[in-house]
Amino acid sequence: MSYDTIVRGGLWFDGTGASPAVCDIGVRDGVVVEVSAEPLDVTGCPHVIDARGRWVMPGMVDIHTHYDIEVLDAPGLSESLRHGVTTVFLGSCSLSTVHVDGIDAGDLFGRVEAIPREHVIAAVDRNKDWRCCEQYIHALEARPLGPNIAAFLGHSDMRAAVMGLDRSTRSDEKPTRAELAQMERWLADALDAGFVGLSSQQLLFDKLDGETAGRAHCRRPTPGHASCGHSRTSSDGPAGCCSRARTSRTRGTWCRRRCSRSASGGRR
Predict the structure, then answer these.
(1) Which of 28, 36, 62, 106 is the 20 to 30 Å CA partner of 123?
(2) 3-state secondary structure the chain
(3) Given this structure, which CATH class describes domain 5-58?
(4) Which CATH class, in words, describes the domain spanning 61-246?
């Protein structure tokens, strides 16, 4: 059997909790096709990695990033790959760049994540050529991505785009029925395009004002998908927060796949 890559002699952790073992790993067309306790034949293999003395494991999944801006200008996301992360999620904490323009994105990402506003505005204005979720996916797929990419649609992204940033940050303002309907349509479009689900932000010090009921209303037509967010719990006090993820069986989820990699001591 021929392979494109063989990883030789590393201590293999398969991710199941089983005891590690020294193995050779054969890769073909970007997929691990053989894990062998016996040495694999390297004849004709163009890429052989000596992993002796190193750990080899499935690529890690980073479910909470704020790469939404970085992926536009540095899509290789090399720092994640260097640490063995081969899949990342965008759109955390209710933030995404699908619907807002550069100025509003600058305020959102600066407000919640302290990413320099001028950098966000410049990156979005320079790169944005999409107007909907499907076009956003195509824009990412056209880039030389490093890790696999999956994405949430941010609630604040939709709310600011449909209500305007001023109204969306005021506690005395509520979306109209038409505005809620527009957010529902955008969320349905995102799920149809393959987004993982909706992300929301409920930390009082940096969320856009909006009732949980409004977010639940937007989440209503989302069976089989996931929602995630930050919520403040009363037992934790005003400064306390917890990450909350509700997941169910996902279907039709888009993930830009480069290949199925294993991480080997920082080497690829």
Answers:
(1) 62
(2) CCCCEEEEEEEECCCCCCCCEEEEEEEECCEEEEEECCCCCCCCCCEEEECCCCEEEECEEECCCCCCCHHHHCCCCHHHHHCCEEEEEECHHHCCCCCCCHHHHHHHHHHHHCCCHHHHHHHHHHHCCCCCHHHHHHHHHCCCCCCEEEEEEEHHHHHHHHHCHHHHCCCCCCCCHHHHHHHHHHHHHHHHHCCCEEEEECCCCCCCCCCHHHHHHHHCCCCCCEEEEEECCHHHCCCCCEEEEECCCCCCCCCECCCCCEEECCEC
(3) mainly beta
(4) alpha beta
pLDDT confidence tier of residue 1, bands split at 50, 70 and 90: confident
**pLDDT for 228:** 60
Length of the chain equals 268
Residue type, 152: F
Domain ranges of the chain: 5-58, 61-246
Q: Tokens for 116?
A: 């320099």
Q: What is the pLDDT of residues 190-219, one digit of tens each?
A: 999 999 999 998 776 555 655 544 544 554
**Contact present, 27 and 4 (Cβ < 8 Å):** yes
Stated pTM of the model: 0.76
